[in-house]
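Methods — Computational structure assignment.
A single polypeptide chain was analysed. Its primary sequence is given first, followed by the predicted tertiary structure written as structure tokens.
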Amino acid sequence: MLFNTARFFLFFAVVLALHYASPKPLRKWILLAASYFFYMSWNPKFVLLLLTLTAIDYTSGLWIERCREPARKKLFLVLSLVANLGFLGFFKYYNFLAAMIAELFRLPPQSFALAIILPLGISFHTFQSMSYIVDVYRGQQKAIRNPVDYALFIAFFPQLVAGPIVRAREFFGGLYQWVAPTSEECLRGVMLMLVGLTKKMALADQFAAISDSYFQHLTAHPGMAAAWSGTAAFAMQIFFDFSGYTDMAIGMALLLGFHFPVNFRRPYLAFSITDFWHRWHISLSRWLRDYLYISLGGNRYGPWKTYRNLMLTMLLGGLWHGASWNFVIWGGYHGLLLSLERIMGRRYFEERGSALLYPFRAVLTFALVCVGWVFFRAATLSDSSYVLRQMLVGARGMADFLIPAWLLVLVGIALLIALFEEKSEWIDGLARGPAWAYVAAAVVLLLMVEMIGVTEKAVPFVYFQF
């Protein structure tokens, strides 16, 4: 059930009505039932996997909190992490590892392959569950006693499939001190849903058609202009698609009375790669920082170990996205850039600096990010190599520039809105402002979806595959 379908909006309307029409003690049961229904609408049999992981981590949290012996406490933590990573590893990485073993023994690539279907949202809910277990182990989170509460934390449908990755203290704080959203919060939630839907249907899906036509038929579009425009189209697609999803997830949660953290903060306005990762997929960035980078030692043991920890964190972050060498290289590429920025002077890359230099730094950062997106989008290493060669030494000329002028105009308008939003959060401003401005914005967004949105067939969100 995709967020950008009439079926989902009917489902959400029913959930919203039942949620507020029911007595408060029943509401979490309604949300849990709705969340499992949402998950099972994709593939019912995988709900057993979700229930199994929920039961393991719920029980592990209680054991860890009750245990007084450090060795046994650590054992329970390890068992929980092994279970989560074991399920994730099998479903996501088995065929990747099997192909490597087949290559090692010079056998056909599919010799040990299995027809594995990746369970929906497994990368996100395992990370969310692992963060809870680690926080309980560190004494930063009380173990949850009620299994229904914990099950809802894992399965809550707005962010189940593609985040944001919500911390236990954020979710349970909202659950246990739940208050009905104010009228201003309701207006903000609705506007976030409209903005997210517009990003997805009117922008991301348009760029998806361009990106797909380029990366699926590389030799049909030779030259530098095609390579850069095809890659830029994917950069626009993945941003509008993923940020559109999280806007809708945050908006839906807000309408249900839950406050989720911001997951995107205008990443293509970043002035460095360091700044980019402060703005892009923020919930994943802070997860990698708090549970991987800091656990490896962070920046506590000198510069060289700091660079090592950055590289390992980003390599594993790349592998989290998918089981291929392209994702590993993508993560390593960003790890290298982050390390280089620290070597050159961390402060310079964490502060915007001169207003005159900012546009040049932002354009350079976007270009560097686009180079990384080549590995993220291309199907194989040879395809990535081909695109990079075309970007650097391909035939010049604008004849094969793939993005139409009207879509560039929309991107220009989106850029101006983003620059304005840097100074004043316009969505919040609309919710607080005059009714005519809110209604006008809503009408414009709906017209964009109706007039230029790709509506013939609902296009899945990019991050559903992760």
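Note: The chain is about 70% helix and 0% strand.
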